Model the fold of this input.
Amino acid sequence: MSISVAIRHQLGRFALDVSFESRGRLTALFGPSGCGKTSVINIIAGLIRADVARITIRGDVLADTAQGLWLPAHRRRIGYVFQDSRLFPHLSVRQNLGYGRWFTPKPGRYADEASVVDMLGLAKLLERKPQQLSGGEKQRVALGRALLQSPRLLLMDEPLASLDEARKLDVMPYIERLRDELKIPIIYVSHSPAEVARLATDVVLMAEGRVLRSGAAGDVLPAIASAGDDYSREAGSLLEMRVAGHDPETGLTTLQFAGGVAFVTGPVAARNTQVRVLVRATDVMLATVRPKGISALNILGGKVESIVEDGASADAVLRVGDARLTARLTRHSVQQLGLKPGKTAYAIVKAMSVKTPTRLPSVADAQGADARP
Amino acid sequence: MNWFTLSPEEWNAVRLSVKVATWAMFASLPLAIAVAMILARTNFWGKSLLNGLVHLPLVLPPVVTGYLLLLTFGRRGLAGAFLAEHFGLVFSFRWTGAALACAVMGFPLMVRAIRLSIETIDRKLEQAASTLGANPAWVFATVTLPLMLPGIIAGMILCFAKAMGEFGATITFVSNIPGETQTLPSAIYTFTQVPDGDANALRLTAVSVIISLVALVASEVLARRVGQRVAE
Done:
C-alpha cells in the first residue's frame, strides 16, 4: 500500500513544497481551501506537470523529474474521482463505466464490472444518461468508472463537497467499503474534519502549500488543534472503540477500548462493531485526582504526553491506553494544576460523537434515498 | 409550358449544383475542423493573421475571391500548374473548380460554427478521459469530436447552403459552361438574360428554394437529435 510523494512546484506566486509517505489504506490530504491539496493530486495524476517531483506507488516510479521521467496521465493508471464527477454527457451510465476499462490492457484488469455495479448499487442506473442522475448517483457512477479501469491508486478530490448533508451520508458508506475491501490505496482530499475523522487511516495535514504533519489518523488529528485558527473550533481526538453493549433501560451504550470504557447515549451500532469516536478538545477537562460526585459519565485516566501553549490557552495531550486525547485548557489552569509531561491526569469528557457505524445501507435503501429530488 | 418537368439542360444544372455543393462541404470539413481546433485551443504569434485569412472570403467581394482563385489555381497559376502537373488535378473551367470556389466561400462559415461548439466543451471532461487511460488521439475521437458534433453539423449545412447559392466567385473562376460549370445560380442568371427565359428561371428558382428548405429542415432535425444526445 505504500505511496511516496515529493513535489516542488511554483504556481504563480504560490509555492508548493510537499512530501509525504503513507502505507495507509485511505490517506486524507487535509487542510483549508486554497492550501494546494488539489494541485498535489493533479500532479500525482499527471494532469499538472510539476517543476520537481518524484512519485512512486508500491515501488513503481510514475514521475522522477531528476531522471527526466514523467509518465503522461493516460499511462499512469490512476483512478480519479473529481469533485464535479465529470461524467461524459454523450454516453450512458453503462458506457461511462466501460470507458476506462476499455483502455486498460487486459493483463492489468482486476476490476470486475458485475461486482463494482453491485458494490456501488448502480444496477438500476445503467441505461440512464448522466443528466438524469442525482448528485449522489453521479458520484457513485464516477467512483465506479474510476474503479473499473483497475487503477493502482485511487484519488478522490472532495467527492462529497458538492452534495448536501443527506447525500453525503448516502455516499460515505460506499467510500468506507472501498477503503476496507479494495486492494489499492486511496488518497482523499478534504477540508472537512468530520469526513477525515470518519474515513481516514492516515492524514497529511497541509497549510499554505506545505505539509505540517503526516502520519496515522489517530496521531495527526490532535495536531489539528495547533494548526491555527481555521481548525481550533474543530480540534479534537479520534478514538477507536468497540461496542460492548446497550442497556435499553438507561438508554446507554457501552464502548470499550484499551484505555477503559466510555458511555454514549442511544443505540449506536450492533455489538462488537468497531466505531470511531470524535472528542472535541473543548469538551475535555483535566483533573489531577479522580473526581467524585460529578455528573459526567466518562472519566478516563492517563498520563500527560505533551502540552502545546498558544496564547492564553494550551492543548494538553493525554495518553489513554493506546489512544491520545487532546484537552483545550487555559495556560493558567496548566500552571495551577502543575501539569507537565509524565504526570498522571484524569480526563472528564463532556461529550463524544460516534462517527462510524460501518454499516452499509442495503442497495435498495440507498437508491430510494437518492431518488428524492 | 410545363411547370413540372425540367429540361435536360435544367436537370444538368441541378445535378451539378448538388454535386459541387456536396464536394465543397465534405472536402473542406477535415481542414475546417483542424483550423477551428487551432483557433479555439491554441495561442501563437500570427493567430489573428490566420483568423483574418480564414474570414477573408466573407468580406471580400466574391468576384475578387474568384479572380484570386483564377490567379493561383488557374492553368498558369502557381498552385494550379503544380497540381495539374503532379496530381493531374485541373481546376480551371472544370466542375472541380466550381467546387473549390464554393468550398473557399463556405469555409469561414463552417470554421465559425465548429469553433463556437469547441469553445463550449468543458475541457475538464478531456482531463477525466486522460486519467481513464485515453491518449490525446483517443480523447479527441471519443470525447471532443462527439461533443462538437452539433457545431460540425451546423457548419456543414451552412457550407452546403452557401455553396448552392455561390455565384460571383464561381462564374469569375470557372465561367458558365453548361454541363461543366453551370450551377443553379449561373443557369438562372443565364435564363434571365435571354428573351422568353422567364419560365425556365422561375422553375429553377422553385427547385432552388425546395433544395434549400429540405437541407435546412434536415439539419434542424439532425441537430436536435445530436443536441439531445450531448446535452448537459
